[in-house]
C-alpha cells in the first residue's frame, strides 16, 4: 500500500524539478542519470549545404558552453553535484539532422518568407544516459534552431564541466501557438541598436519568435525611411537617436537569424505628432493644449485622415518602410484615436465636407488604404483592437488584431471571426505600476496599476471565455514595454525575467508535458514554474542580461521553501 | 488687495529661490543672475587658506575637476547644448575656484568630520561665483562644508560643444542642511551586492548630499559580514565564500564613504531576522527554519535569537561589540523589528527559561536589550532601533537611543511622544521596493505588502513635522529612503534607487515646502547628470517631456 502511494507520487510529479527548461517542452521524458559533455564535445550537422545562420547558431552555442558559469540553484551550488558529475557518462557529440525530403533553407528564410501559421518549429532532441551521441531532428532549420535553443539553455556548470541530472532525455516539442512576441516601444525613450540586439538574443533563448517594433510615436520618430528622411531628421530626439535604414536591416537580419520575425508597427492615424515636426500639413491638433482633451498623453496630434494628401503620404510612408523589411507581417496600429482632435481641426472639417464624409467614414477609408499597401506587399496586416471594437472599421479578412485594453476584449474580437494576439494590459503590460509620469499629478498612479508580476502573466489562459470553435483564432500573444518610464538604463530589469512568463504561456500552452494543466493552484509554486524561472533569471544574468531577482537567493536555492504555505 | 500683496510676496520669494536648473538638493539660500559664464580651459580649483589640507579634500577637488571635464551634460531644452552656443561664445571666463576655511577652523579630514555625531557635523558653506570672470570662492567652517560646496559647484555647469558654462551667473549660495540625518538604507542580506555596487551607491548618495549610509548588512537569509572572532557566522551563513564583506572590504567602504561626507551606520538586526546564525550557532536560535514559516516570521526563513539565554545575550553583546570596532560611526543599529511571539512561545528552551525565571517574553526582551545596549554603550556607540522597540515592546531604552519609524508615518507621533530622537523611514513614503508584486511562491495574485510603488513625488511631498508639536519636531533628525532586496540585486540597484532616493535627499536637506511640480525639471537634470556619471537612473518621463518643462503636466 505504501509502495503504491509512493509510485503514484512519482508519476504525478509533473517533471523533474532539477531540469531547468523554459519554456517547458510539450513532450518530455526524463530519467535521473547525470551526464556531462565531453571535453571534446562537438556539434555536427548530418547534411550538406548547412546555411550560414544555422552554422552561426551552432558556434554561438559552443561559445556559451565555454563561457556560461551558471551553477545549479541548490544549497552548495555545483559542489552538491560533484560526485555524480565525476562518475557521469560523457556526451561526445550532438548531431543535427533534418527529416528527409525537406528543402534546406536558412533559418532567416524560414522566418521571413513563411506565414506565421505555416512555420514548422518542431524538433526532437535526445540525450542518452549511457551513450555518447545526442541527436536533434527537425523538419526545418527553424525547428533545429529551436532545438538548439533548448540544448543551449539546459546545462549546469561546475568545475569546468557542463552537465544535466535528467538523462536519458527525450524531448518532442513544438509550440502551442505560432505567435509569441515582445512589443517594444522605442519612441517615448530611445534605445540603441545594441539594446535591441541583446533583447533579441534573450528572446531567442526562450523561443519567442516576434519582435513587434513600435518604432515611432508622438514623442519621437526615430525611423529613417528613404521616401521621407526629414521625418527622422526633424522628428527624432537627436541625430544620434535614429534607426538608419542600415540599422533596421541589421536588426531584422539579426532577429531573423535567431528565429525571430520583426513586425513593424507604424501607429496611425493617432500617435503621430512627431510627423508634424517635418510635415505639419499632415497633423491635426499638433501639440494642442490642453492635451488631455486631444490625446491620451502629451503631445496631441493625429494624421489628417480626411486629406487626400495625407492619405497618400501615409501610403508612401508604409511602402517606404516595407521596402526595408523582410517578413510577412506588419502593423498599422490604430489605438487611442481622439475625436475632438479632428472635430476641432479646420482642415479636417473642410476636407470632410468636401468629401461628404463623416470622421468614421474617413477613418474606415484610411485604414483600408494603408491595409491595401500592406496587402499588396504580401504583409499580413495587424491592427489594434479598438479600431475594430470601438470604431468598427472595415479590415481585411486576414487581419491580426492586437487585443490590448483588456483580456475581456478577446471574446468580442473572436465573435467577429478575426484572428488575434493577446496583449491585455491587465496581464501583460510590463510598464504598469510605477506611478503616473505626467507632471503635477502628484499622487497619480499608473493607469494600468498594479505592477504585472510574472505570476500574473503566467496565470493567463489564452482560451479564457472562448468557445472551442473560436480557439483557432488565437495566434498567440505578446508582452509589451511602453517606454514612458523606461530607457536603455532599465530595459533588462523591467523586461526580464517577466517576459519569459509570456514565452512559456504561448509555447507550452494549456498543458504540461505530462498532460496536466499548466495552470492550477500550484503552477507558480517554488517547486514548479518558480524554480525554473529562477533558473532563467540566473542564466540571463550569467549571460549579461540584467534580469531582476525574483526572490532572496535563499529562496532560489531552496525551491518551495518560500511558498506562501510552506 | 490682500491677494495682490500675497502674490507679490510670493513672487519675491520665488525670485530669491530661483533655482539654478541643475542643482539638487536646492540650496537653502541662493541668488542667481542671467549672465553666461564659462570655465576657462585652464580652470583650476585651488585650496587656499586651508592649513595642512587633508588628503581626502585633495581627492575631492580632483574628483570635482573630473566631473567638470567629463559630465558633458547638455541642457535639457529642445536643441540641447546648441541652443546656448551663441550666448556662451561671448561669455566671460572663470579660471579659478578658491577654497578656504573660516577663521579658527581646523582642517580635519572630511571623513573625520562626517563621522562625528550626527548633530555635530558642520555641513554649511558659502559659494560665490561672480559673473565678471573674477575668481569664485567657496568658504566653510569645516572640510565637510567645503565638500558639500564642491558638490554644489560641480552641478552648476552644462556643456555646449567643448564649452562648460552656466547661464545664471552671478551665483551666490549660502547653504546648510535643514536636517542633520539624510540617509539611504541598503539591505545586502536578501541578495548580495559586491563592493563596487556599494561604492557606486555611495558616490550617488554623495552627489545629492546624503550623509548617512544605513547598512542593513545581515538578515535571516544570509550573513555576509566577516566579524573578527565570529568568522563562523559568515563561513556558514554567507551565500558563498565570495559573497562576503571582509574587514578589509568594510574598511574600504567606510573610508570611501567618509571621504564623500558619508557616515556608515551598520545594523545587526536583533533578536529577530537572525535565522542564519543557526547555521553556525544553532544553540542561539529559536524556531530556526521552522515551518510553516508564516506562523513564525514575516518572511522565510524563521528564526530569532533566544533572548532568555544568558549565553545568547553574551554572544549577541560580544558580536555587537566586535562589529562596532569595524565602524567608526557614533551609532550602531540593533534593529528590533518584527519580533515574532509564536517563535518563542513554541521554543521549549525559551519557555523553560521563562518558567524558571518567572519572566514574561517582554521582560526577557527588556533585559536582553539592556545587556546588548549596555555593551554597545561601553563601546561608545549610540544605539539605533526600529520603532517597535519603542512603541510595541515597551523596552527600557536609554534616552539618547534613536528610533527608525518604518511601519507607518502615522507612528511618528507616538515615538516623539516617548521623547526619542527619530529618523523618518516610513514604508508608506520611503520604501523603494514596494509595488513589485509578491515574491513568495504559489501566490499568483499576491501583491507587495506595501503596495503601491512609492513614486518620487510621494516621498517628496512628505511632511517631516506633520502632527508634531514644536518640541516634538526637534526630535526629528531627518529621514531616508530604504531598499529591501528580496526582489533586487546588482542587476537593478541603480534603476530601483535612482533618481527616487534623491527626493528624500532634497526634502531633508532643503526642508519641506518646495512645489513638487516645479522641481521636476531639476530632477530631470540630476537624473541625466547621474547617467553621465555612470549611474543607471530610470527615466521619469519621455525625453520629449524632459526637454519641455511643464508640457507634460496634467494641466498643460
UniProtKB/TrEMBL annotation, chain A:
<dbReference type="GO" id="GO:0004563">
    <property type="term" value="F:beta-N-acetylhexosaminidase activity"/>
</dbReference>
<keyword id="KW-0326">Glycosidase</keyword>
<keyword id="KW-0378">Hydrolase</keyword>
<protein>
    <recommendedName>
        <fullName>Beta-hexosaminidase</fullName>
        <ecNumber>3.2.1.52</ecNumber>
    </recommendedName>
</protein>
<feature type="signal peptide">
    <location>
        <begin position="1"/>
        <end position="20"/>
    </location>
</feature>
<feature type="domain" description="Glycoside hydrolase family 20 catalytic">
    <location>
        <begin position="177"/>
        <end position="509"/>
    </location>
</feature>
<dbReference type="InterPro" id="IPR029018">
    <property type="entry name" value="Hex-like_dom2"/>
</dbReference>
<feature type="active site" description="Proton donor">
    <location>
        <position position="336"/>
    </location>
</feature>
<dbReference type="InterPro" id="IPR025705">
    <property type="entry name" value="Beta_hexosaminidase_sua/sub"/>
</dbReference>
<keyword id="KW-0732">Signal</keyword>
<dbReference type="GO" id="GO:0005975">
    <property type="term" value="P:carbohydrate metabolic process"/>
</dbReference>
<dbReference type="GO" id="GO:0016020">
    <property type="term" value="C:membrane"/>
</dbReference>
<comment type="similarity">
    <text>Belongs to the glycosyl hydrolase 20 family.</text>
</comment>
<dbReference type="InterPro" id="IPR015883">
    <property type="entry name" value="Glyco_hydro_20_cat"/>
</dbReference>
<dbReference type="GO" id="GO:0030203">
    <property type="term" value="P:glycosaminoglycan metabolic process"/>
</dbReference>
<feature type="domain" description="Beta-hexosaminidase eukaryotic type N-terminal">
    <location>
        <begin position="21"/>
        <end position="151"/>
    </location>
</feature>
<dbReference type="Pfam" id="PF00728">
    <property type="entry name" value="Glyco_hydro_20"/>
</dbReference>
<dbReference type="InterPro" id="IPR017853">
    <property type="entry name" value="GH"/>
</dbReference>
<dbReference type="InterPro" id="IPR029019">
    <property type="entry name" value="HEX_eukaryotic_N"/>
</dbReference>
<dbReference type="Pfam" id="PF14845">
    <property type="entry name" value="Glycohydro_20b2"/>
</dbReference>
<keyword id="KW-0325">Glycoprotein</keyword>
UniProtKB/TrEMBL annotation, chain B:
<comment type="similarity">
    <text>Belongs to the glycosyl hydrolase 20 family.</text>
</comment>
<feature type="active site" description="Proton donor">
    <location>
        <position position="338"/>
    </location>
</feature>
<protein>
    <recommendedName>
        <fullName>Beta-hexosaminidase</fullName>
        <ecNumber>3.2.1.52</ecNumber>
    </recommendedName>
</protein>
<dbReference type="InterPro" id="IPR029019">
    <property type="entry name" value="HEX_eukaryotic_N"/>
</dbReference>
<dbReference type="GO" id="GO:0005975">
    <property type="term" value="P:carbohydrate metabolic process"/>
</dbReference>
<dbReference type="GO" id="GO:0016020">
    <property type="term" value="C:membrane"/>
</dbReference>
<keyword id="KW-0732">Signal</keyword>
<dbReference type="InterPro" id="IPR015883">
    <property type="entry name" value="Glyco_hydro_20_cat"/>
</dbReference>
<dbReference type="InterPro" id="IPR025705">
    <property type="entry name" value="Beta_hexosaminidase_sua/sub"/>
</dbReference>
<dbReference type="InterPro" id="IPR029018">
    <property type="entry name" value="Hex-like_dom2"/>
</dbReference>
<dbReference type="InterPro" id="IPR017853">
    <property type="entry name" value="GH"/>
</dbReference>
<dbReference type="Pfam" id="PF14845">
    <property type="entry name" value="Glycohydro_20b2"/>
</dbReference>
<feature type="domain" description="Glycoside hydrolase family 20 catalytic">
    <location>
        <begin position="179"/>
        <end position="511"/>
    </location>
</feature>
<feature type="domain" description="Beta-hexosaminidase eukaryotic type N-terminal">
    <location>
        <begin position="23"/>
        <end position="156"/>
    </location>
</feature>
<keyword id="KW-0326">Glycosidase</keyword>
<dbReference type="Pfam" id="PF00728">
    <property type="entry name" value="Glyco_hydro_20"/>
</dbReference>
<dbReference type="GO" id="GO:0030203">
    <property type="term" value="P:glycosaminoglycan metabolic process"/>
</dbReference>
<keyword id="KW-0325">Glycoprotein</keyword>
<dbReference type="GO" id="GO:0004563">
    <property type="term" value="F:beta-N-acetylhexosaminidase activity"/>
</dbReference>
<keyword id="KW-0378">Hydrolase</keyword>
<feature type="signal peptide">
    <location>
        <begin position="1"/>
        <end position="22"/>
    </location>
</feature>
